[in-house]
Amino acid sequence: MEVSVYERERQERIQRNREWIAKLGVNELATGLRPEAVAGKARAAPAGLRKRKTISEANGVDEEVVRARRMSLRVRGRRPEGDVDEASASGEGKRGTTVVAEPDRGPVLGDQHWEQIALRDYGVWNEDEEGREEDDPERQRRRLVERFATCLSAPTTPSYTNAADADVAQRLPSWSLHEERGFAKLVPDRVYSAVMLPRNDQWVVAVGDKWGRVGLLASSATAGAAMGILSLTVHRRAVSGLAVLGGDGGGRRLLTTSYDGSARVLDLEKQMASTVFVDQEERLLKSVAVAAAPTAATAARNSNSAEVNAEPNVWWSTLIDRSRGGCLVRHDLRTPMHTADEFFVSDYKLYSVDACCLHTAQAHSSAERLAVATARDGVLVYDTRRLSTSARRRNAPQQPLCALPHERAVTAARWSPSGTRLLTTCYDDRLRIWHGDWEAASKARTEHTFVHNNNTGRWVTAFDARWNPASADDTLFACGSMHNSPYHGVDVFHTRHAPHAVWHRLGGDAMTAIAAVLAWHPGGQALAGATASGRLYLWCPWDDQTA
Protein backbone atom coordinates (compact mmCIF):
# COMPACT_ATOMS: atom_id res chain seq x y z
CA MET A 1 0.00 0.00 0.00
CA GLU A 2 1.41 3.38 -1.04
CA VAL A 3 1.96 5.90 1.77
CA SER A 4 0.47 9.32 1.25
CA VAL A 5 2.54 12.50 1.11
CA TYR A 6 1.06 13.77 4.37
CA GLU A 7 1.86 10.55 6.24
CA ARG A 8 5.43 10.57 4.89
CA GLU A 9 5.96 14.14 6.08
CA ARG A 10 4.50 13.32 9.50
CA GLN A 11 6.88 10.40 9.99
CA GLU A 12 9.83 12.61 9.01
CA ARG A 13 8.84 15.25 11.59
CA ILE A 14 8.56 12.59 14.30
CA GLN A 15 12.01 11.26 13.44
CA ARG A 16 13.58 14.76 13.52
CA ASN A 17 12.01 15.47 16.92
CA ARG A 18 13.40 12.23 18.32
CA GLU A 19 16.89 13.11 17.10
CA TRP A 20 16.71 16.59 18.67
CA ILE A 21 15.51 15.18 22.01
CA ALA A 22 18.31 12.60 22.00
CA LYS A 23 20.90 15.29 21.14
CA LEU A 24 19.72 17.57 23.99
CA GLY A 25 19.61 14.70 26.51
CA VAL A 26 16.09 15.47 27.70
CA ASN A 27 15.33 11.87 28.67
CA GLU A 28 18.43 11.60 30.88
CA LEU A 29 17.63 14.95 32.50
CA ALA A 30 14.05 13.88 33.27
CA THR A 31 15.29 10.63 34.78
CA GLY A 32 17.65 12.52 37.08
CA LEU A 33 14.92 14.88 38.26
CA ARG A 34 12.47 12.06 39.00
CA PRO A 35 12.19 11.55 42.82
CA GLU A 36 13.15 8.19 44.16
CA ALA A 37 10.30 6.03 45.37
CA VAL A 38 10.21 5.87 49.16
CA ALA A 39 8.90 2.65 50.58
CA GLY A 40 5.98 3.32 52.90
CA LYS A 41 5.46 1.70 56.24
CA ALA A 42 3.96 -1.73 55.83
CA ARG A 43 0.65 -2.12 57.60
CA ALA A 44 0.46 -4.71 60.31
CA ALA A 45 -1.42 -7.90 59.49
CA PRO A 46 -4.12 -8.92 61.97
CA ALA A 47 -3.53 -11.95 64.12
CA GLY A 48 -5.88 -14.90 64.03
CA LEU A 49 -6.38 -15.70 60.33
CA ARG A 50 -4.26 -18.19 58.42
CA LYS A 51 -4.74 -18.13 54.67
CA ARG A 52 -4.92 -21.57 53.13
CA LYS A 53 -3.78 -22.56 49.68
CA THR A 54 -6.53 -22.64 47.11
CA ILE A 55 -7.28 -25.73 45.06
CA SER A 56 -5.49 -24.26 42.07
CA GLU A 57 -2.37 -23.43 44.10
CA ALA A 58 -2.24 -26.84 45.78
CA ASN A 59 -2.66 -28.83 42.55
CA GLY A 60 -0.95 -26.46 40.14
CA VAL A 61 -4.13 -26.01 38.09
CA ASP A 62 -5.41 -22.82 36.54
CA GLU A 63 -7.92 -21.17 38.85
CA GLU A 64 -10.37 -20.62 35.99
CA VAL A 65 -10.57 -24.39 35.49
CA VAL A 66 -11.54 -25.27 39.05
CA ARG A 67 -13.73 -22.25 39.72
CA ALA A 68 -17.32 -23.37 40.30
CA ARG A 69 -19.92 -22.03 37.92
CA ARG A 70 -23.19 -20.52 39.07
CA MET A 71 -26.12 -22.82 38.35
CA SER A 72 -29.78 -21.92 38.25
CA LEU A 73 -32.48 -23.78 40.14
CA ARG A 74 -33.51 -25.53 36.92
CA VAL A 75 -30.00 -26.86 36.29
CA ARG A 76 -29.71 -28.02 39.91
CA GLY A 77 -32.99 -29.90 39.60
CA ARG A 78 -35.07 -27.65 41.83
CA ARG A 79 -38.42 -26.01 41.44
CA PRO A 80 -38.75 -22.21 41.57
CA GLU A 81 -39.89 -22.53 45.19
CA GLY A 82 -36.61 -24.24 46.05
CA ASP A 83 -38.00 -27.75 46.63
CA VAL A 84 -36.26 -30.79 45.19
CA ASP A 85 -38.19 -32.48 42.39
CA GLU A 86 -38.42 -36.19 41.71
CA ALA A 87 -35.71 -36.11 39.07
CA SER A 88 -33.14 -34.89 41.59
CA ALA A 89 -34.20 -37.16 44.43
CA SER A 90 -31.44 -39.59 43.51
CA GLY A 91 -28.80 -36.86 43.74
CA GLU A 92 -28.53 -36.10 40.03
CA GLY A 93 -30.00 -32.98 38.46
CA LYS A 94 -30.67 -32.18 34.85
CA ARG A 95 -27.84 -32.55 32.35
CA GLY A 96 -26.14 -34.97 34.73
CA THR A 97 -25.03 -32.31 37.21
CA THR A 98 -24.83 -33.13 40.89
CA VAL A 99 -27.38 -31.34 43.04
CA VAL A 100 -25.75 -29.14 45.67
CA ALA A 101 -27.33 -29.58 49.11
CA GLU A 102 -28.79 -26.41 50.56
CA PRO A 103 -27.51 -25.44 54.03
CA ASP A 104 -29.79 -25.74 57.02
CA ARG A 105 -31.58 -22.51 57.84
CA GLY A 106 -33.34 -23.36 61.08
CA PRO A 107 -31.91 -22.94 64.58
CA VAL A 108 -29.52 -25.44 66.12
CA LEU A 109 -31.47 -27.43 68.72
CA GLY A 110 -28.90 -29.73 70.29
CA ASP A 111 -25.83 -29.11 72.43
CA GLN A 112 -22.46 -28.96 70.71
CA HIS A 113 -18.89 -29.16 71.88
CA TRP A 114 -16.53 -26.46 70.68
CA GLU A 115 -14.43 -29.01 68.82
CA GLN A 116 -17.40 -29.66 66.52
CA ILE A 117 -18.05 -26.03 65.60
CA ALA A 118 -14.57 -24.44 65.63
CA LEU A 119 -13.23 -22.88 62.42
CA ARG A 120 -9.90 -24.30 61.32
CA ASP A 121 -8.53 -21.09 59.81
CA TYR A 122 -8.85 -18.90 62.92
CA GLY A 123 -6.51 -19.24 65.85
CA VAL A 124 -2.94 -18.77 67.01
CA TRP A 125 -0.29 -21.04 65.52
CA ASN A 126 3.35 -21.71 66.21
CA GLU A 127 6.01 -20.79 63.68
CA ASP A 128 6.33 -24.39 62.47
CA GLU A 129 2.57 -24.59 61.90
CA GLU A 130 2.16 -21.48 59.75
CA GLY A 131 2.77 -23.12 56.39
CA ARG A 132 1.70 -26.66 57.24
CA GLU A 133 -1.61 -28.13 56.16
CA GLU A 134 -3.30 -30.39 58.69
CA ASP A 135 -4.51 -33.72 57.33
CA ASP A 136 -7.04 -34.34 60.09
CA PRO A 137 -9.52 -31.44 60.47
CA GLU A 138 -10.89 -32.80 63.74
CA ARG A 139 -7.45 -32.94 65.30
CA GLN A 140 -6.71 -29.41 64.16
CA ARG A 141 -9.95 -28.07 65.67
CA ARG A 142 -9.23 -29.92 68.90
CA ARG A 143 -5.78 -28.35 69.05
CA LEU A 144 -7.20 -24.86 68.53
CA VAL A 145 -9.78 -25.30 71.30
CA GLU A 146 -7.20 -26.67 73.72
CA ARG A 147 -4.78 -23.86 72.96
CA PHE A 148 -7.45 -21.21 73.57
CA ALA A 149 -8.57 -22.88 76.80
CA THR A 150 -4.96 -22.96 78.02
CA CYS A 151 -4.52 -19.27 77.26
CA LEU A 152 -7.82 -18.44 78.95
CA SER A 153 -6.90 -20.25 82.16
CA ALA A 154 -3.24 -19.18 82.31
CA PRO A 155 -2.47 -17.00 85.36
CA THR A 156 -1.34 -13.52 84.34
CA THR A 157 -0.70 -10.18 85.97
CA PRO A 158 -3.87 -8.12 86.51
CA SER A 159 -4.42 -5.85 83.52
CA TYR A 160 -6.08 -3.09 85.50
CA THR A 161 -7.07 -1.98 88.96
CA ASN A 162 -10.35 -0.41 89.98
CA ALA A 163 -10.18 3.35 89.55
CA ALA A 164 -12.52 6.27 89.84
CA ASP A 165 -14.15 7.97 86.88
CA ALA A 166 -11.73 10.90 87.11
CA ASP A 167 -8.76 8.54 86.74
CA VAL A 168 -10.33 6.89 83.68
CA ALA A 169 -10.89 10.26 82.01
CA GLN A 170 -7.29 11.27 82.72
CA ARG A 171 -5.77 8.03 81.45
CA LEU A 172 -7.96 7.48 78.39
CA PRO A 173 -6.00 9.88 76.11
CA SER A 174 -2.92 7.72 76.70
CA TRP A 175 -4.62 4.53 75.53
CA SER A 176 -3.16 3.05 72.37
CA LEU A 177 -3.75 0.30 69.84
CA HIS A 178 -1.19 -2.50 70.02
CA GLU A 179 -0.60 -3.92 66.54
CA GLU A 180 0.38 -7.36 67.84
CA ARG A 181 -1.87 -7.98 70.85
CA GLY A 182 -4.71 -5.54 70.18
CA PHE A 183 -5.38 -6.16 66.49
CA ALA A 184 -6.88 -9.45 65.29
CA LYS A 185 -9.32 -10.92 62.79
CA LEU A 186 -11.82 -13.03 64.72
CA VAL A 187 -14.65 -13.82 62.26
CA PRO A 188 -14.94 -13.97 58.46
CA ASP A 189 -17.82 -11.51 57.95
CA ARG A 190 -19.34 -8.29 59.25
CA VAL A 191 -19.60 -7.93 63.02
CA TYR A 192 -23.07 -7.30 64.44
CA SER A 193 -22.42 -7.52 68.19
CA ALA A 194 -19.58 -7.46 70.72
CA VAL A 195 -19.02 -7.76 74.46
CA MET A 196 -16.09 -7.82 76.89
CA LEU A 197 -15.97 -10.22 79.82
CA PRO A 198 -15.50 -8.93 83.40
CA ARG A 199 -12.00 -10.25 83.98
CA ASN A 200 -9.12 -8.26 85.47
CA ASP A 201 -6.27 -10.64 84.59
CA GLN A 202 -6.64 -10.35 80.81
CA TRP A 203 -8.83 -8.84 78.13
CA VAL A 204 -11.42 -11.30 76.82
CA VAL A 205 -13.59 -10.08 73.93
CA ALA A 206 -16.37 -11.86 72.01
CA VAL A 207 -17.85 -10.73 68.68
CA GLY A 208 -20.66 -12.13 66.52
CA ASP A 209 -20.79 -11.83 62.74
CA LYS A 210 -23.35 -11.93 59.94
CA TRP A 211 -23.47 -15.71 59.45
CA GLY A 212 -23.59 -17.05 62.98
CA ARG A 213 -19.91 -17.16 63.92
CA VAL A 214 -18.67 -16.02 67.33
CA GLY A 215 -15.03 -15.01 67.64
CA LEU A 216 -13.18 -15.01 70.97
CA LEU A 217 -9.99 -13.13 71.83
CA ALA A 218 -7.95 -13.49 75.01
CA SER A 219 -5.11 -10.98 75.25
CA SER A 220 -3.08 -9.65 78.15
CA ALA A 221 -1.67 -6.17 78.63
CA THR A 222 1.55 -7.73 79.92
CA ALA A 223 4.31 -8.00 77.33
CA GLY A 224 5.23 -11.56 76.37
CA ALA A 225 1.95 -13.13 77.50
CA ALA A 226 0.27 -15.65 75.23
CA MET A 227 -2.70 -14.60 73.11
CA GLY A 228 -5.64 -16.88 72.30
CA ILE A 229 -8.05 -16.68 69.35
CA LEU A 230 -10.95 -18.99 68.56
CA SER A 231 -13.88 -18.77 66.13
CA LEU A 232 -17.03 -20.89 66.51
CA THR A 233 -20.06 -21.47 64.28
CA VAL A 234 -22.80 -20.99 66.88
CA HIS A 235 -25.83 -19.95 64.78
CA ARG A 236 -26.97 -20.21 61.19
CA ARG A 237 -27.77 -16.53 60.77
CA ALA A 238 -26.49 -13.24 62.15
CA VAL A 239 -25.51 -13.07 65.82
CA SER A 240 -27.53 -10.00 66.76
CA GLY A 241 -26.72 -9.87 70.47
CA LEU A 242 -24.07 -10.90 72.98
CA ALA A 243 -24.33 -10.61 76.75
CA VAL A 244 -22.47 -11.90 79.78
CA LEU A 245 -24.63 -13.91 82.14
CA GLY A 246 -24.16 -13.01 85.79
CA GLY A 247 -24.43 -15.20 88.82
CA ASP A 248 -21.21 -17.16 88.22
CA GLY A 249 -18.79 -14.57 89.57
CA GLY A 250 -16.39 -14.53 86.63
CA GLY A 251 -18.34 -14.13 83.41
CA ARG A 252 -17.89 -17.73 82.35
CA ARG A 253 -21.09 -17.87 80.28
CA LEU A 254 -22.07 -15.91 77.18
CA LEU A 255 -25.63 -15.53 75.91
CA THR A 256 -26.07 -15.15 72.14
CA THR A 257 -29.19 -14.26 70.15
CA SER A 258 -29.58 -14.65 66.41
CA TYR A 259 -31.73 -13.88 63.42
CA ASP A 260 -32.53 -17.60 63.20
CA GLY A 261 -34.87 -17.16 66.17
CA SER A 262 -32.77 -18.90 68.80
CA ALA A 263 -30.62 -18.08 71.81
CA ARG A 264 -27.62 -20.13 72.94
CA VAL A 265 -25.24 -20.14 75.88
CA LEU A 266 -21.48 -20.54 75.46
CA ASP A 267 -19.82 -22.03 78.53
CA LEU A 268 -16.14 -21.07 78.62
CA GLU A 269 -15.30 -23.71 81.23
CA LYS A 270 -17.19 -26.69 79.81
CA GLN A 271 -16.47 -25.60 76.21
CA MET A 272 -20.06 -26.29 75.23
CA ALA A 273 -22.71 -24.44 73.18
CA SER A 274 -26.24 -25.19 74.36
CA THR A 275 -29.56 -23.93 73.03
CA VAL A 276 -31.72 -22.25 75.67
CA PHE A 277 -34.50 -20.66 73.60
CA VAL A 278 -36.13 -21.28 70.22
CA ASP A 279 -38.96 -19.22 68.78
CA GLN A 280 -41.56 -21.55 67.33
CA GLU A 281 -42.17 -19.24 64.38
CA GLU A 282 -38.43 -18.62 63.85
CA ARG A 283 -38.79 -14.85 64.01
CA LEU A 284 -35.78 -12.56 64.26
CA LEU A 285 -34.21 -11.84 67.64
CA LYS A 286 -32.76 -8.38 67.13
CA SER A 287 -30.89 -7.73 70.40
CA VAL A 288 -30.37 -8.97 73.94
CA ALA A 289 -30.38 -7.32 77.36
CA VAL A 290 -29.47 -8.70 80.76
CA ALA A 291 -29.83 -6.38 83.75
CA ALA A 292 -26.34 -6.14 85.21
CA ALA A 293 -25.52 -5.56 88.84
CA PRO A 294 -24.47 -2.00 89.72
CA THR A 295 -20.84 -1.01 89.46
CA ALA A 296 -18.74 -0.35 92.53
CA ALA A 297 -18.92 3.40 92.06
CA THR A 298 -22.68 3.36 91.63
CA ALA A 299 -23.21 1.08 94.60
CA ALA A 300 -21.09 3.33 96.80
CA ARG A 301 -23.01 6.40 95.76
CA ASN A 302 -26.35 4.66 96.37
CA SER A 303 -25.36 3.02 99.64
CA ASN A 304 -28.18 4.74 101.49
CA SER A 305 -30.80 3.67 98.95
CA ALA A 306 -32.84 0.52 98.84
CA GLU A 307 -31.25 -2.68 97.66
CA VAL A 308 -30.58 -3.14 93.94
CA ASN A 309 -31.42 -6.60 92.64
CA ALA A 310 -30.50 -8.23 89.33
CA GLU A 311 -31.91 -11.52 88.12
CA PRO A 312 -29.07 -13.39 86.37
CA ASN A 313 -31.33 -15.98 84.72
CA VAL A 314 -33.78 -13.61 83.00
CA TRP A 315 -32.97 -11.94 79.70
CA TRP A 316 -34.86 -9.71 77.28
CA SER A 317 -34.84 -9.42 73.51
CA THR A 318 -36.63 -7.57 70.72
CA LEU A 319 -38.47 -9.86 68.35
CA ILE A 320 -39.31 -8.72 64.81
CA ASP A 321 -42.20 -10.03 62.73
CA ARG A 322 -42.78 -8.55 59.28
CA SER A 323 -46.56 -8.90 59.50
CA ARG A 324 -47.12 -8.24 63.21
CA GLY A 325 -44.62 -5.54 64.12
CA GLY A 326 -42.18 -5.71 67.01
CA CYS A 327 -42.48 -7.47 70.36
CA LEU A 328 -40.55 -7.79 73.59
CA VAL A 329 -39.56 -11.27 74.69
CA ARG A 330 -38.70 -12.28 78.24
CA HIS A 331 -37.24 -15.69 78.94
CA ASP A 332 -35.99 -17.44 82.04
CA LEU A 333 -33.07 -19.81 81.53
CA ARG A 334 -34.57 -22.19 84.07
CA THR A 335 -37.65 -22.80 81.90
CA PRO A 336 -37.98 -24.89 78.70
CA MET A 337 -36.60 -23.40 75.50
CA HIS A 338 -40.00 -23.00 73.82
CA THR A 339 -41.55 -21.03 76.69
CA ALA A 340 -41.28 -17.25 76.88
CA ASP A 341 -43.40 -14.21 77.71
CA GLU A 342 -44.21 -12.05 74.70
CA PHE A 343 -45.33 -8.41 74.85
CA PHE A 344 -46.48 -6.50 71.79
CA VAL A 345 -44.85 -3.06 71.64
CA SER A 346 -45.06 -1.39 68.24
CA ASP A 347 -46.32 -1.80 64.69
CA TYR A 348 -42.88 -0.86 63.43
CA LYS A 349 -39.39 -2.31 63.56
CA LEU A 350 -37.59 -2.55 66.90
CA TYR A 351 -33.83 -2.06 67.05
CA SER A 352 -32.54 -2.66 70.56
CA VAL A 353 -33.55 -3.08 74.18
CA ASP A 354 -31.55 -2.19 77.28
CA ALA A 355 -32.35 -2.96 80.90
CA CYS A 356 -31.33 -1.41 84.19
CA CYS A 357 -32.10 -2.47 87.75
CA LEU A 358 -34.45 -0.44 89.92
CA HIS A 359 -34.13 0.30 93.63
CA THR A 360 -36.80 -1.71 95.43
CA ALA A 361 -37.68 -2.09 99.07
CA GLN A 362 -38.15 -5.85 98.76
CA ALA A 363 -34.97 -7.83 99.25
CA HIS A 364 -35.85 -10.57 96.77
CA SER A 365 -37.87 -8.70 94.16
CA SER A 366 -36.63 -8.20 90.61
CA ALA A 367 -37.59 -4.89 89.01
CA GLU A 368 -36.13 -3.52 85.81
CA ARG A 369 -36.66 -0.54 83.56
CA LEU A 370 -36.47 -1.15 79.82
CA ALA A 371 -35.60 1.23 76.99
CA VAL A 372 -36.74 0.07 73.54
CA ALA A 373 -35.43 1.79 70.40
CA THR A 374 -37.94 1.78 67.53
CA ALA A 375 -38.01 2.84 63.89
CA ARG A 376 -40.85 5.39 64.13
CA ASP A 377 -42.06 5.59 67.72
CA GLY A 378 -38.82 6.97 69.14
CA VAL A 379 -37.72 5.39 72.42
CA LEU A 380 -40.27 3.63 74.63
CA VAL A 381 -39.56 3.25 78.35
CA TYR A 382 -41.23 0.44 80.29
CA ASP A 383 -41.37 -0.81 83.86
CA THR A 384 -41.26 -4.60 83.94
CA ARG A 385 -43.66 -4.68 86.89
CA ARG A 386 -46.36 -3.08 84.72
CA LEU A 387 -46.04 -5.33 81.69
CA SER A 388 -49.02 -7.58 81.13
CA THR A 389 -48.82 -10.90 79.34
CA SER A 390 -52.44 -10.49 78.24
CA ALA A 391 -51.50 -7.59 75.93
CA ARG A 392 -49.96 -9.65 73.16
CA ARG A 393 -52.11 -8.54 70.23
CA ARG A 394 -51.71 -5.56 67.96
CA ASN A 395 -54.98 -4.06 69.16
CA ALA A 396 -53.75 -4.13 72.77
CA PRO A 397 -50.15 -2.88 72.90
CA GLN A 398 -48.21 -2.26 76.08
CA GLN A 399 -48.50 1.23 77.52
CA PRO A 400 -45.04 2.72 78.15
CA LEU A 401 -44.08 4.90 81.08
CA CYS A 402 -43.01 7.54 78.60
CA ALA A 403 -42.06 7.93 74.94
CA LEU A 404 -39.07 9.99 73.83
CA PRO A 405 -39.75 11.45 70.36
CA HIS A 406 -37.09 11.42 67.65
CA GLU A 407 -37.23 12.69 64.09
CA ARG A 408 -35.91 9.48 62.53
CA ALA A 409 -35.24 5.87 63.49
CA VAL A 410 -33.39 5.27 66.76
CA THR A 411 -30.79 2.53 66.40
CA ALA A 412 -29.87 2.24 70.08
CA ALA A 413 -30.85 3.45 73.55
CA ARG A 414 -28.53 2.74 76.51
CA TRP A 415 -29.01 3.37 80.22
CA SER A 416 -26.21 5.12 82.07
CA PRO A 417 -24.30 3.33 84.85
CA SER A 418 -26.42 5.13 87.45
CA GLY A 419 -29.66 4.27 85.65
CA THR A 420 -30.88 7.88 85.67
CA ARG A 421 -29.90 8.92 82.13
CA LEU A 422 -30.55 7.49 78.68
CA LEU A 423 -28.18 7.76 75.71
CA THR A 424 -29.84 7.48 72.28
CA THR A 425 -28.32 7.08 68.81
CA CYS A 426 -30.54 8.34 65.99
CA TYR A 427 -30.39 8.50 62.20
CA ASP A 428 -30.99 12.27 62.34
CA ASP A 429 -27.24 12.61 63.10
CA ARG A 430 -27.74 13.30 66.79
CA LEU A 431 -26.55 11.69 70.01
CA ARG A 432 -28.86 12.67 72.86
CA ILE A 433 -28.68 12.26 76.62
CA TRP A 434 -32.09 12.24 78.29
CA HIS A 435 -32.59 12.91 81.99
CA GLY A 436 -35.57 13.37 84.27
CA ASP A 437 -38.46 11.59 85.89
CA TRP A 438 -39.09 8.44 83.86
CA GLU A 439 -42.51 7.97 85.40
CA ALA A 440 -43.85 10.99 83.49
CA ALA A 441 -43.06 11.83 79.89
CA SER A 442 -43.41 15.56 80.50
CA LYS A 443 -40.52 15.55 82.98
CA ALA A 444 -38.02 13.70 80.74
CA ARG A 445 -35.91 16.21 78.83
CA THR A 446 -32.83 16.34 76.63
CA GLU A 447 -29.82 17.20 78.77
CA HIS A 448 -27.11 17.12 76.07
CA THR A 449 -27.18 16.91 72.27
CA PHE A 450 -24.15 16.08 70.10
CA VAL A 451 -24.10 16.45 66.32
CA HIS A 452 -22.65 13.21 64.96
CA ASN A 453 -22.78 11.49 61.56
CA ASN A 454 -24.78 8.30 62.18
CA ASN A 455 -25.71 7.42 58.58
CA THR A 456 -23.63 4.27 58.21
CA GLY A 457 -25.32 3.05 55.03
CA ARG A 458 -25.90 -0.50 53.96
CA TRP A 459 -22.50 -2.11 54.46
CA VAL A 460 -21.64 -0.82 57.93
CA THR A 461 -23.44 -1.90 61.10
CA ALA A 462 -25.56 0.83 62.65
CA PHE A 463 -23.84 2.82 65.39
CA ASP A 464 -24.57 2.09 69.04
CA ALA A 465 -23.17 4.70 71.43
CA ARG A 466 -22.03 3.10 74.71
CA TRP A 467 -21.49 4.48 78.21
CA ASN A 468 -18.26 3.86 80.04
CA PRO A 469 -19.31 1.54 82.91
CA ALA A 470 -16.89 3.29 85.29
CA SER A 471 -18.48 6.69 84.65
CA ALA A 472 -20.24 7.11 87.99
CA ASP A 473 -21.42 10.64 87.16
CA ASP A 474 -22.63 9.67 83.65
CA THR A 475 -20.17 11.82 81.70
CA LEU A 476 -18.11 9.50 79.47
CA PHE A 477 -19.28 7.52 76.43
CA ALA A 478 -18.03 6.47 72.98
CA CYS A 479 -19.45 5.97 69.50
CA GLY A 480 -18.15 4.80 66.13
CA SER A 481 -17.13 7.42 63.59
CA MET A 482 -17.64 7.80 59.84
CA HIS A 483 -14.78 10.29 59.54
CA ASN A 484 -11.49 9.01 58.15
CA SER A 485 -9.52 12.25 57.98
CA PRO A 486 -6.71 12.01 58.82
CA TYR A 487 -7.40 8.44 60.01
CA HIS A 488 -10.19 6.15 61.12
CA GLY A 489 -11.04 6.11 64.79
CA VAL A 490 -13.62 6.05 67.57
CA ASP A 491 -15.16 9.23 68.97
CA VAL A 492 -15.10 9.64 72.75
CA PHE A 493 -17.38 12.21 74.41
CA HIS A 494 -17.20 13.82 77.84
CA THR A 495 -20.19 15.93 78.87
CA ARG A 496 -18.17 18.02 81.34
CA HIS A 497 -14.95 18.66 79.40
CA ALA A 498 -16.57 18.98 75.94
CA PRO A 499 -20.36 19.32 76.27
CA HIS A 500 -21.04 19.85 72.55
CA ALA A 501 -18.23 18.20 70.58
CA VAL A 502 -15.91 15.20 70.41
CA TRP A 503 -13.60 15.19 73.42
CA HIS A 504 -11.02 12.62 72.25
CA ARG A 505 -10.45 10.27 69.34
CA LEU A 506 -8.98 6.77 69.61
CA GLY A 507 -7.20 5.39 66.56
CA GLY A 508 -3.99 3.79 65.34
CA ASP A 509 -1.86 3.00 62.30
CA ALA A 510 -3.42 -0.46 61.96
CA MET A 511 -6.96 0.92 61.81
CA THR A 512 -8.19 0.99 58.20
CA ALA A 513 -11.97 0.65 58.57
CA ILE A 514 -14.93 1.95 60.57
CA ALA A 515 -15.23 0.39 64.02
CA ALA A 516 -19.03 0.51 64.25
CA VAL A 517 -19.60 -2.04 67.04
CA LEU A 518 -18.12 -1.08 70.42
CA ALA A 519 -17.78 -2.82 73.76
CA TRP A 520 -16.38 -1.39 77.00
CA HIS A 521 -14.72 -3.48 79.64
CA PRO A 522 -17.02 -3.67 82.71
CA GLY A 523 -14.27 -1.94 84.68
CA GLY A 524 -14.07 0.88 82.14
CA GLN A 525 -10.35 0.32 81.54
CA ALA A 526 -10.46 -0.84 77.89
CA LEU A 527 -12.50 -0.33 74.73
CA ALA A 528 -12.95 -2.79 71.86
CA GLY A 529 -14.17 -1.89 68.36
CA ALA A 530 -15.13 -4.26 65.53
CA THR A 531 -15.47 -3.63 61.80
CA ALA A 532 -17.41 -4.95 58.81
CA SER A 533 -14.50 -7.22 57.85
CA GLY A 534 -14.44 -9.16 61.12
CA ARG A 535 -11.43 -7.34 62.56
CA LEU A 536 -11.15 -6.24 66.17
CA TYR A 537 -9.26 -3.28 67.64
CA LEU A 538 -8.50 -3.01 71.34
CA TRP A 539 -7.49 0.22 73.09
CA CYS A 540 -6.11 0.04 76.61
CA PRO A 541 -2.99 1.02 78.61
CA TRP A 542 -0.49 -1.56 77.34
CA ASP A 543 2.47 -2.22 79.63
CA ASP A 544 5.15 -1.82 76.96
CA GLN A 545 3.61 1.36 75.52
CA THR A 546 2.95 3.39 78.66
CA ALA A 547 5.36 5.93 80.02
UniProtKB/TrEMBL annotation:
GO molecular function, one term: DNA binding
Lineage: superkingdom: Eukaryota
Xref: SUPFAM superfamilies: WD40 repeat-like
Protein's name in the database: Uncharacterized protein
Gene3D superfamilies assigned: YVTN repeat-like/Quinoprotein amine dehydrogenase
InterPro entries: WD40/YVTN_repeat-like_dom_sf, WD40_repeat_dom_sf, WD40_rpt, WD_repeat_DNA-damage-binding
GO cellular component: nucleus
Record key words, sorted: Repeat, WD repeat
Region named Disordered: 74-107
Organism: Cyanidium caldarium (Red alga)
Swiss-Prot/TrEMBL WD repeat ranges: 403-434
GO BP of this protein: regulation of DNA damage checkpoint
Family label: Belongs to the WD repeat DDB2/WDR76 family.
Pfam families according to UniProt: WD40 (PF00400)
PROSITE patterns linked to this entry: WD_REPEATS_2, WD_REPEATS_REGION
Lineage: Eukaryota, Rhodophyta, Bangiophyceae, Cyanidiales, Cyanidiaceae
